[in-house]
Amino acid sequence: MSTAAxxxxxxxxxxxxxxLVAIEREFERLSTSDVDSITEIAGYLREGxxxxxxxxxxxxxAKALGYTGNSSIRLGAVVEMVHxxxxxxxxxxxxxxxxxxxxxxxxxxxxxxxxxxxxWMYMQAFRVALEERNFRVLDLLINLTQQMVEGEMLQxxxxxxxxxxxxYYELIxxxxxxxxxxxxxxxxxxxxxxxxxxELLGDYxxxxxLAFQIVDDVLDLTASDxxxxxxxxxxxxxxxxxxxxxxxxxxxxxxxxxxILAVIEDQSFTRVSHERILAILQRNGSLDYAMQVAYGxxxxxxxxxxxxxxxxxxxxxxxxxxxxxxxxx
Length: 329
Fold this sequence. Notes:
Elements: H1 3-30, H2 36-47, H3 53-64, H4 71-93, E1 98-99, E2 102-103, H5 105-109, H6 111-130, H7 135-158, H8 165-190, H9 195-222, H10 225-228, H11 234-237, H12 243-251, H13 254-266, H14 274-283, H15 286-303, H16 312-326
C-alpha cells in the first residue's frame, strides 16, 4: 500500500477513533455471560481482532447523514457480534484449525461448546438490538441472519463440485456482502434516511462486500500462510470453487478442467498440486479476471455515493473501496 494510502487510512481511523474504541468496549461488555465458558470463548474470539470494517461502515453512514447519538455504538457492537458468531460457526463447519494466525476457538473448547457460544452471541446481539425499540432494525437483522444461514447451507450443498458464476455471486452475497449492506442500512435507519438513500447506500455496502470477498478469495489462492494467518488455498481444500477457479473451469482446456475438478472433488491436493492449479489460473488470466471484477464492484460502490452530500464522512466512504481491493490480507 502506498504512503498516500496509509495517510488516508490514518485519517479515516482518526475520524472514527473514539467511536471505534467505544464499540470495542461495548463489544467486550456484551460478551460477558454468567457462564464462564461463554465469556472465555466470546472473549477469545473478540481478542482475535479483525478489521472492524462493518461497524466502521455503520458509523460512517450514520455520521454522513448527520446522526450524533449513542445507538451507533450499540448497533456497531451488534454487527460485529453477529459477524463474530458467523466466524465461529464457519470454523466448525469447515473443520478449521487456524483463524487469524491463532488456533480456532473450536480447537480450544471443542465444537459443542463453540456452537452454543456462537448461538449465545447471536441471541445477545438481538437482545441489544431489541433495546432500540425499532422494528426496522429488527427486520434488517432477522433478514440478515436468515440469509447468512441460507448461504452457509447452500455452500455446504455445493461443496466438491463446480458452480456457475451466478451461484458463486449468490453465495458471497449471502455469506459476506449481505452484512456489509445491512451495516450501511442500519446507519441509514439511525440517520433517518429516505428510502432512496437507504437503497443506494445499501447497494454501496453490497458492492463493497462483493469486492471484499472476491479479493479475499484471490488472496486465499495466492498469499502465504503467514500473511493470511491460515493455510493457503483453504477454499480449494474444502471443495469450494471461487471466482478465479470458476473462470478457469469455463475457459481452460479439457485437461486443465479435469485437474481443477480433481482438487475440488478430492477436497485435497493429493492428485494435483497447488502449484499446478496456480499455473492454470495464471495461464487463463483467471486471477486477473477476478481482480478486475472486484475493481468493478469497488467503482460501482463509489458511484452509489453520488446522492450523499459532501462531508469528511462521505470522503472516507469513497476511500474504503480502495482499501478493500488493495489489501494484502
